[in-house]
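Please check this protein record:
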Amino acid sequence: MPLGTLDRTPPPFFRQGPSALTRLALCSAVAIFLMVLDARFKLATPARSALALVMHPVQRLLLAPVDAWEAGGEYLRGTERAKEAEDQARRQLVQQAERLSRAEQLQAENARLRALLILRPALQVQSVSAEVLYEAPDPYSRRVTIDRGSRHGIQSGAPVINEMGVLGQVTRVYLLSSEVTLLTDKEAAIPVLNTRTQQRSAAFGSSDGGGMELRFLAANADVKVDDQLATSGLDGVYPPGLPVAKVTTVERRGDTSFARVGLAPIAQADSARHVLVLQPLAAFESARAEAAAAAAADAASAAARKAEVKAEARAAKAAKAASAAASKGDNGGHR
């Protein structure tokens, strides 16, 4: 048979169809088209959810041996940790009992000394708990937003603290939220008292927003590194004795009459989640004065009512005595 008459087409079993490059291009185009549709119209979300629902029991079944092994090991480790935690809790309980005993003694002694010196009792200002929602989007300020507002009794200028110390001050109040300016903000200022020397000064937020500094402090002032600063209570906003900052650097230069003192705030705002919003000290004093005036007015009104009752009783008694005397006189005349 001549070679030209041979059929050169492959049998149906060996037919390859389009080339590999064509198939790759077609599959790539379909994949891109499906990804665009999924990104635009979320077409694959129901299928993905259904597939995850179907595969969840299978995944749990395959993870069962691993979970059982980890649970057994965790049980053994948990028993050891529980014993260690119990021992530590017992030691802490003993230490706390000792501290509580000393604290009660100090509190009683403080009360006796205040009574001896005729000092007013320590302030107990009202507070509202709040949670930090988010930081202000302005990169040039240090502010946070909390989830309490005027509806919850928050006032503008109220101090904000956490378990470590002072965080800042409420500067804007909305209905359901408030904005708190932190102590590290460049526009923040707070009067402080050096707990070691009892020297009063003012702390300001640094310009870089990362710390604080003491300004207008004399170069020969008695201030050292690690000195603790607390609120002085002289501004009518912050109650006295709240921890504020710690001295980190002290620079004394001969070309200036002021010392440059760097501070680190004790309350770390970056890790603060739950805070307390205190009533401003001036508002607290005003409310206490109003309560005292109202109590005095009530006492005066009660005394006036008591005096009126006594006067009416005396008048009634005198009228009764006069009536009895008149009746006696009439009986004598009839005789």
